[in-house]
Amino acid sequence: MSGPHAVVVGGGIGGLCAAIGLRAAGWRVTVAERASRFGEIGAGIMLWPNAVRALRALGVHERMRALSTPQAKGGIRTRRGTWLMRMDHSAAERVLGGPVLGVHRADLLASLLEALPAESLRQGTEITGVTAGAGLTSSSGDIDDADLVVGADGIHSLIRSSLWPRHPGPSPTGTVDWRAVIDDPGSPAFGMSWGRGTEFGSIPLVDGRLYWYASINADTVTENDEDKEFLLRHFRSWHHPIGQLIASTPAEAILRHEGSFLEEPLSCYVHGRVALLGDAAHAMPPNLGQGACQAIEDAVVLAASAAAHDSVPEILHRYDRLRRPRSQAISRSSRRMGRFGQQLSSSPAVVMRDAALRLIPSALSMRGMSTFASWEAPTIRPDR
Ligand SMILES: Cc1cc2nc3c(=O)[nH]c(=O)nc-3n(C[C@H](O)[C@H](O)[C@H](O)COP(=O)(O)OP(=O)(O)OC[C@H]3O[C@@H](n4cnc5c(N)ncnc54)[C@H](O)[C@@H]3O)c2cc1C
Predict the structure, then answer these.
(1) Which protein residue has the closest C-alpha to ligand 1 atom 52?
(2) What is the pLDDT of residues 323-340, one digit of tens each?
(3) Cα(first)–Cα(last) distance of the chain, in Å?
C-alpha cells in the first residue's frame, strides 16, 4: 500500500482502531507495540452504542458483534439488592439508539487484529523517543520516520510526556478496582450494585462467561489480605449472587488495578505532526464505562479527517477541534458520577443518593446517558 505513512504507537483498542481507520482513509500504517504480542488483559468491557457505531464505521462491527452480548436486563441496585434504576434491551434501543454490548477484551482485540495485515503490525517494538516533526526512535531501530505519529500508548504515554512535558501526568482516582472473567454459574443480570464507597458490577459475555468488577474507595482497602479473601469479606453481606461470584473465581484470575486518570485536561491533543488518542489523551475514571468507547470514537474521527484532508496540520486541527471538547466533557461527567454515585461514602449522603435515584424515572436516567451514547460516527470516505 502506498500513500502517506502513519506510525501508531501502542496496539491497544485505541491504537488498533486508529490503524484500521487510517488504512481505510488510504494511509500506510505501522503499529508499534512494545509487548511481545498484541493482547488484552483477562477482563471484559462494556461498549455503548456510540462505540458500536464507531466500530461499524471502521468496518469491524459484524465480527465484533458475533463476539459480544447485548445486555438484556439490568440496572443499578443497592447492596441489599433493591433496584434504584432499571434498564432493558428495548429501552436501550429506544433511548440510546442501540444495544449496550458486553465483550471480552481479548475478543475485541482479536477482531481488530483480524482487520489489519501482518505487515502493519510490529510487536516487541517499544518507541523510545519522538519529535514534533514525527521523528521516532525505537527499541528495534527499524521504525521509519512518518508523516504522522499517533500516540495511542495509554495513560502513562511516552508520547505525551515527551511532547507535553509540562503536563503533570496521571492522578489517582481514589479507588482500587478488581476484575475477573469466569464461567457464569447461573446467568446473573447485567448491572451494578452500589454501597458506601463501593461498587460491584457484572456483565454477561458470550459463551456463558461473565465479567465482574469491584471498585472500592482506596482508603478502606486493607493491604494485608490476599485479594480474593479481602473481597469475600468486604462483600459478605451484599445481595446474591455477589459472594458466590467472587467465591467461584480462581484467586489467580482476579486482576487488581489502582485507578488513575488525567485530572488536568490537555489544552490540545496535537503537537506538530503528532496526535494523542485514547487514554494517552484523556484517560478517565471508569465510572461511565466510556474510556475505550472514546478511544474508538477518536480513531474514527482521526481517520475521517485524514480521508477528507491532504495536509497533516489540517487533519490534526480538525481532529483536535472535534475530539477534545467531547472527550473531556465525558471525562468530567465520569468523575462527577463517581463523586456523587459509587464513591460516596458517608451514610447520610448514601441514603440521599439512593432515595434520589429511586425517585428519578429510569427512562429519565437513561436519557442522561444518551448525551454520550447517541453520538453518530462520521464516514471515512477517502476523496483524495
Ligand atoms: C477498571 C476499568 C474498567 C473499565 N471499563 C471500561 C468499559 O466498560 N468500557 C470502556 O469503554 N472503557 C472502560 N475502561 C477504560 C478502557 O480500558 C481504556 O480507556 C482503554 O483500554 C484505553 O485504550 P488505549 O488503546 O487508549 O490504551 P491502552 O489499552 O493502555 O493501550 C496502550 C498500548 O500502548 C502500548 N505502549 C505503551 N507505551 C508504548 C511505547 N513506548 N511503545 C510501544 N507501545 C507502547 C501498551 O503496551 C499498550 O498495549 C475501563 C478501565 C478500567 C481501569
Answers:
(1) 286
(2) 999 999 999 999 998 888
(3) 15
Q: State the closest ligand 1 atom to the C-alpha of 293, by its place in the atom list counted from 1.
A: 11
How far apart are the CA of 278 and the centre of ligand 1, in A? 7
Return the CATH number of the domain spanning residue range 5-170+261-373. Answer: 3.50.50.60
Distance 352 CA to ligand 1 centre (A): 34
Rounded to whole angstroms, the Cα distance separating 101 from 89 reads 10
| Closest C-alpha to ligand 1, atom 15 | 291
Question: Ligand 1 mean position to 236 CA, how many Å?
Answer: 31
9-62 pLDDT tens trace: 999 999 999 999 999 999 999 999 999 999 988 899 999 999 999 999 999 999
Instruction: Name the helix (H) or strand (E) containing 136.
Output: strand 136-138
Concatenate the DSSP letters of all residues of 219-231 into one string.
GG--SSS-HHHHH
Q: Which residues contact 359 (CB under 8 A, 6 or more apart)?
A: none
The domain spans of the chain are 5-170+261-373
Distance between CA atoms of 322 and 342, rounded to whole angstroms?
Answer: 30
